[in-house]
Amino acid sequence: MAAPSRERWSKEFSRWFDWVLEEAEIYDYGRYPVKGMGVWRPYGFQIRRRVVDLIRSVLDASGHEEVLFPLLIPEHLLRKESEHVRGFEAEVYWVTHGGREPLDVKLALRPTSETSISYMESFWIKSYRDLPRLFYQVVSIFRYETKATRPLIRLREVTTFKEAHTVHDSFEDADRQVEEAIGLYKRIFDELGIPYVISKRPEWDKFAGAVYTVAFDTVMPDGRVLQIGTVHHLGQNFTIPFEVRFQRRDELIDYAWQTSYGLSDRVIATLIAIHGDDRGPVLPPNVAPIQVVVIPIPARSEEDTARVEKALNELEERLREAGIRYRVDRREDVRPGRKYYEWEARGVPVRIELGPREAREGSLVLVRRDTLEKRKVEASRVQEELEKLFEEIRSELRNRAWKWLETKVRRVETVEEARKILEEERGIVELPWCGRQECGLRLEEMVEAGVLGSPLEKPEWVKGRRCPVCGQPAVTSIRVAKKY
Ligand SMILES: [Zn+2]
Q: Residue 1: which pLDDT band, with cuts at 50, 70 and 90?
């Protein structure tokens, strides 16, 4: 059978996405009476938990230590680094009262934790022997977003913010940590089959308080670009005002260097969006709360009914033994066709159909959610067959997503071509660039889109080409896109 059409899904992505969150009971958005805040429902929470488990396992295995800081940050801490506060000021929620009493010191709901963590690091870090230290936490952050909010994509409470904060004894070691963080994020996105483009953000769009920012972006089904992860070299921008000092190897006292890097609910939004189709999401087996749903096909005779029941019991035992997360849908008042539809809409990667014929033959029918392809297997070999199928689904989802992203990244040499592509197809457009800020800003206006930045390494193809804005020789390329 052919894969479901992806037409409607990409053209009406926003409606599709809202429908999926509702239909699959992932995230209830818009009903909770605070704008920009939604509720994780049990099924969605299970997806979220598996994604967070993956992130934790990658960070734990690379020397990161999990911590938990208070939600409230006093105003004077938040104001200590001036660039930082300028970047966040318009988005901070303030707690101003305790009961009936106005507070002496206003308290911010954390928009991010560079300030509170740097403050505590000033007590913890004494010597080069203490370094590097790699901390992280998974917490809620709050931002008073003034742009239109969207479920899991632009929220006022981001409920799954993984922020890592690291401290180093030199600029170079922090640089190396940025590299390492990029590698860890690649691993996480690869596990989830999420394709990405890595760019060094331009000066005018780096994190408030960073020396430089590297970002992961992906193209959503509607062609608009979503930032899904960022890595910042913070230099000594926070350690100087917060006095995070340490004794160097040569016994001199110096300020430490830092990095920070974050992932959010957007990782889960992307996971759902990227692998979806008209029938709903397609969850990769490694994070699917239910990996296999078993649908018994009702039999007419008593003899067949008993046979199906026996085969079901054997199947359950095999699935349990293999540690597979499964569910048997035994509802008697719901027809199999209806059940297929419901589980497809929840993105369960594999369906097993078991009826009188299969019970007699000692076989099972496995149906892949991603391609809807059916295969008949021997019931006694179901564990190996599923293991193989999970791996196939995972790698094919990833390959399909990467291929799609590649068609969405285009190279052009004129502003006119860039404008046309961004208007008609969106995606990411790369142009040669002289590297000057004024040309980048001018380009944003000319193509009516945002700059994502430049590749980390100078791309070969710009050699001998010119900046389409000023006509000077290109030193790198610049990426532009319609952004979320
Ligand atoms: Zn230029």
A: very low
